[in-house]
Every structure is written in C-alpha cells, then in structure tokens.
Amino acid sequence: MPSLFPALTDGPAADRPALRFGERSLTYGELAAAAGAVAAGLGRARRVAVWAAPAPETAVAVTAALLAGVAVVPLNPGSGGKELGHILSDSAPDLVLAGPGEELPAPLGALPRLDVDPAAGAPGALPDDRARDEGDPALIVYTSGTTGPPKGAVLPRRALAATLDALADAWGWTGEDVLVHGLPLFHVHGLVLGTLGPLRRGGSVRHLGRFTTGGVARELNDGATMLFGVPTMYHRIAEALPADPELVRALAGARLLVSGSAALPVHDHERITAATGRRVVERYGMTETLMNTSVRADGEARPGTVGVPLPGVELRLVEEDGSPVAAYDGETVGEIQVRGPNLFTAYLNRPDATAAAFTADGWFRTGDMAVRDPDGHVRIVGRKATDLIKSGGYKIGAGEVENALLEHPGVREAAVTGEPDADLGERIVAWVVPADPQAPPGLEELAGHVARRLAPHKRPRVVHHLDALPRNDMGKIMKRALRRG
C-alpha cells in the first residue's frame, strides 16, 4: 500500500513546519531524521508501548514505529497502576518509548526502554513502509473498560489511511492547513486525527499542551486554519466569546471548526455561530471504527447531526431484533451498525468479544443509538447501554432531552438517565448544573420546558441539582457515576 506519510519523503520541502508543541517545533526534515533514528533502535520489535505525553516525542515515536511496521500501544500517562498493568500484560510490548526526561511508573520498569530525543544523534535511514500489508496492525488502542478491563482494539494500517483520506474528502483538508488542538495523544481523536492526519496531508499541527481559549485565539490569529476539540472545549469557547473579541476574530477567520468524541449541544452550536458567523462541524466515530460520518465542510449546516457516512463507509440502523429500521424518517430510533475499511480487525486476545461485536455478515455493532433523516443525515441520541430510555412504550434518546434542557437559561450543564419506574418501565431523570446555584430551576419548570419543545412523554420526572457533572479525559459525561451517586 502507499506510505502512511508520503509527505515525509516526497511531499513538502524539508524546512516546512510539521509539529509544534509550545516552544518546541520540528520541520519535516527534522521529523524524518528523528523518526529514522528511532526506527533504527526498534530492532526486531513487533509491538511497542509509547508513553503518550502531549509532546513531540510522542509524535516522533509513533511515526517511527508505523514507518517501521511496528504496532504501537499508546499509553495514557494518567492511567492508574492496575489499568496500566493490565494493558502491558495483555499487549506484551517489546519496548517502551518515551522522552529522555520522563519518569515512568513501576509497571513499566521491567520493559526495555528506548529514549526518544528529537534533537539527539545522527539521523537514521527513514524506513520505507510501502511494502507493508494494509491489514498489518498499526495501533492497539485500549477502550475505556466501562464493563470490565479495557480491551485492545487492533487498528490496521488501512483503517488509518481510509479514515484520514475520507476526512480529507469531507473537509477539504490539504497540506496548506494548520491544525490547532489541545487533545490527549493516547486516544484516536488527538493521535490519529489530530497528529497523524496533518502529517499524512503534509500540513502541520500546533498542540496547545493544555487547552485554553487564549491559546486557541493566539494560534488561529497566527495562521492556523483548523481547530479540533471536544464539547467541553467548545462550551468554554461559547462561554468566553461575549467578553473576548480576539477569540471572536480567531474563530471567525478559521477555515474549519470540528467537534467530536461526544455530542455538542445545539445551544453551544448556536452561540458560537451567532458570535462568529462560523459553524462547528461534527463527526461520529469510535475507537473500533475510527470515523464513520461527518458533516461536510461544503454541505448544509445542521446542528445536532453528525452528517452523512464518509466515503467507503456503509451505515445502517437496526431494531432490537437486528432487523433494519423500516424507514429513515428522522424519528425512528435504531442502533448504528457499520461496515468499511475504517474498522478494527479484532480485540487483542479476545476472540469471544470480537465475535460478539460483529454480525454474521460483517456489520459492527456500535451500541450507539440514532435516528436518520430521509436525506441520510444521522443524529446520535445516545448509547444503547446508558442513553436509551424506554418509558411508557416509547424509545427516548437521552441526547435530545439534554439538548432541550440546555436551552433553558437556568441550566449550565445537563445529563439525562433512566431509572426503573413501576408504571412507565423507566422514568427520565435529569442531572442539572444550574446557572445560578442559589436559584436552581425546579422539576415543574424543567418538565414543562422539555414538554413544550419535544413531547410530553419526553419530560423529566426527577431532577437532581449538582455542582458539576463527572467527566472523563475526553470530556464525556460518566453516567454510571451519576447513577452510583
């Protein structure tokens, strides 16, 4: 197959910027030299762990390993000892790659270590990865493990190439684009899309290290063209815009604003567009599938949807018995199933879980619930396990109720779950962070607000007021924590 990173050998000039992390930067020439030197130290390794700190060493290490045909296991620097021990035992890497100054935790102590120093030593020959098979493992990314120990999703080389090329088609992504983000590099959003994506296109990435609205404004006003973020980040942007003209100018001048990893509330869409004239594009993917759909940069602005299937991706909605949803009418809820070159090949060492994840004819069961408009646009309503509420004979997606709650001026943040109800089967429960903690909106007020916007059967029957919603590293609300609380 073609190289994953053609820009490193026959793309832009060697002095073209490739990576910038704070004050540290690498040109394409420097990246090629550094990656070549690291690749030379991999020896016969078949699989390596990478300490995925938000630093250029991570980008160099991953690039070198992929060019050398070595599978990468990105490690979250925030992982606890038990989780880290499980990942290392399950994936059995031959080496751990990290920056020279990184202090690694005890579970990594028994592994041989290769220091990654972008500025040290003579460059080695850059491996030619064009002879690699497209089905060869590229990344093994561990899922969040909400129903047991994390599972390692094996992503082949073709999945990376297919997703990044499909997004280039949908977003008009070229080597002239400069991407800014502050996403972690142990997850597919920040690593595959946010780092490998620019390198595959021959463009550049500027990593903020830590997300701030000031950092976003600075980089977009200094030539960056694209911003990737998660809903928490865009919510902070929306909150800051009224008092920050530099941030308004920055977003107004951006070519593309992309949100992912969870649904962006419609209210934040509207506030950003009203202040800047720019819309935020949403896309839908997951660790096992990389990207499945996106709103196109040249398509219709439709807040609340994740667009249409990307080139090469098949998508369908199915009923609980596995039969296809009869009609795409924008109302009927079904589980998303997908097929395409973007999919993972297996859960490492888990043939049982792999078999359970696919239908007999090769469709992957995502566990995500959605409705689909007649023209093909998809709107996610939540996870089957946590966000599908069956109340009074209706199937209700938590996401649409959350969006309605967020339109209430007294609600700063909201999450919706279901709980058992003797009469309804399940009742809708709202978890609300009030805009004014001294005057939180009550149940009657919020139930009436939702009923007027959606339908009476979708109104919350219980409201809990919180100081904050529990979130994970990617900004997703941890609903199981709400239920335990």
From TrEMBL:
Protein family membership: Belongs to the ATP-dependent AMP-binding enzyme family.
Residue ranges of domain AMP-dependent synthetase/ligase in the record: 14-348
Lineage: Bacteria, Bacillati, Actinomycetota, Actinomycetes, Kitasatosporales
Full protein name: Malonyl-CoA/methylmalonyl-CoA synthetase
Coiled-coil regions listed in the entry: none
Key word Ligase present: yes
GO molecular function: medium-chain fatty acid-CoA ligase activity
Source organism (scientific name): Streptomyces griseomycini
Location of the AMP-binding enzyme C-terminal domain: 400-476
